[in-house]
Amino acid sequence: MAVITISRGSFSGGTMLAQCAAARLGYRCIDRDAIVKRAADYGVSEHNLKDALDSPPTFWDRFKHTKYVYLTLIQAALTEEMRAGNAIYHGNAGHLLLRAVSHVMRTRIIAPPAFRVAAVQERLKLGEHEAVAYIQKMDDDRQKWTQYLYGVDWRDASFYDLVLNLEHLDIAQACDIIAATARQDCFQETTASRSAMDDLALASRVQANLAVTPATVHFEVDVTAHAGSVVVKGHLSTREQADDVRAVVSKVPGVNEMVLELFAETEA
Prior knowledge:
This protein has eleven helices and eight strands. By secondary structure, it is α/β, with parallel strands linked by helices. The chain folds into two domains: 3-187, P-loop containing nucleotide triphosphate hydrolases (Rossmann fold); 213-261. The two termini are 36 Å apart.
């Protein structure tokens, strides 16, 4: 029950490849819009979520807490969707959000400029020079976005298990490679990797609930989980605020124990 993430530059064949591999493996094919729609179930505008994810870092400079909230909700939606396994996700930074889980196969697709320019010209009806400029802007925005939100260069090959260059491979051949790699033992779900995914999902769910509950919506905390035990770390100023956090966390399904490391006087 592997999970595959596909990262790529715009118009690099990632959608076609994801759809091909999903059909070949019998997996669900999930894009960013599906995750945004699920994240919006927490009560946030789907339109605003999409706009925020497409906005450059200058937007986030003005709304840093909004960045925290939206990332929290995207993480929660993605981990819940991926828990069922047998899925391919092609969208924003899935390889970074799910990197703690060993049965996630992190894939990057590279396409030559001519491939990408032709795709832009066909889809957007642009001239060659306009298409080149469009791709450059999209790539620059993606790099700035990932660097700002995660502090990493998404193009770094060390973040991936498999990198495919479509210069000499066609989509069908690349699809064959992805399908064959996904069937390898190293990407099959184990008891440990299943637990890691469940822990990530629970921690994300707790953090998301804190991010949308009126009493705790302005707090920014780090949440980890292990086998139902949740640790919440952050900096709050009053015991009443810690009580608000405790009240929210205690109601999240799957939490059977919590430790709050919020300020010196707080006890678990």
